[in-house]
Design goal:
The chain is α/β, with parallel strands linked by helices and about 250 residues long. Helix content is about 40%, strand content about 15%. It contains 7 helices and 7 strands; from the N terminus they run E-H-E-H-E-H-E-H-E-H-H-E-H-E. A 7-stranded parallel β-sheet has the order 3-2-1-4-5-6-7, with helices on both faces. Helix 4 packs parallel to helix 6. The radius of gyration is 17 Å and the shape is globular.
Length: about 250
């Protein structure tokens, strides 16, 4: 555990936290003192592995399997956090997909799948968590966006539209929820070293070169999320913060 546990006593849900950026966020929040609900849709082994890692490090964690594009499943996810830890202070809407399909071949069913997984899920989780975030008095929502929603990319119209929608949702919620002491921000990662189920590199990565000369790590994104959830970031809301090594300058 870190020396400064600035999230001590707080409880977080991190969607899609069985691997990659979500995993790093869950571990980082736990190291800052938060109890963390690790969420995944299908891989119980991955989710339990993250929770076990947190517990071995002295933290508190539970696992809640849920498809966050399903309203009933989301209600169960939030209820599981309350059952396990008695409160909810932080929501990180991280779950995402990386499909690439030429627009001419993009079926409506695939469009809806992507938008539901990224944008609808953020709405559903934020709405279900809201009463508990209000009760917290210092709640925080962090949405995880993406580089291509700012630069554009071939074959990713559905993903880009959904991720861009997260930016709009962030701004709207910042206005609506400020009265309840809830901050809402979006983190937009650039080219991050992660494992991919397909094993293929996203095509748009080939046209980007970070100014810093390397790709980022999931842990660097997690550190930014931790800051936005903590007491030193209470004056920051409605913002999209880019962490991309200089690939895109906002």
């Amino acid at each position: 555990m870190t020396v400064r546990e600035d999230l001590s006593g707080r409880v977080a849900i991190v969607t899609g936290s069985g691997r990659n950026i979500g995993r790093a966020i869950a571990i980082e929040l736990a190291r800052a003192g938060a109890a963390v609900v690790v969420n995944a849709r299908a891989s119980v082994i991955e989710a339990e592995g993250v929770a076990d890692e947190i517990r071995r490090d002295g933290g508190r964690a539970s696992v809640a399997m849920a498809d966050v594009s399903n309203p009933a499943a989301v209600a169960g996810l939030v209820e599981s956090a309350i059952r396990a830890f008695g409160r909810l202070d932080i929501l990180v809407n991280n779950v995402g997909v990386r499909k690439e399909t030429e627009f001419a071949d993009l079926r409506y069913e695939e469009w809806r799948e992507i938008v539901a997984t990224i944008l609808d899920a953020a709405y559903l989780c934020s709405h279900a968590a809201l009463p508990h975030l209000v009760a917290s008095g210092s709640g925080a929502i962090v949405n995880i966006g993406g580089l291509s929603s700012w630069t554009g990319a071939k074959g990713r119209a559905h993903v880009i539209a959904a991720k861009a929608g997260l930016v709009g949702l962030t701004r709207g919620l910042a206005h609506d929820l400020a009265q309840h002491g809830i901050t809402v921000n979006c983190v937009s990662p650039g080219m991050i070293e992660t494992s991919r189920a397909s094993g293929k590199e996203p095509a748009h990565h080939a046209v980007h070169t970070p100014l810093v000369g390397r790709r980022g790590t999931p842990e660097e994104i997690a550190a930014l999320v931790r800051f936005l959830c903590g007491p030193d970031a209470r004056y920051i809301t409605g913002q999209t913060i880019h962490a991309n090594g200089g690939v895109f300058l906002s």
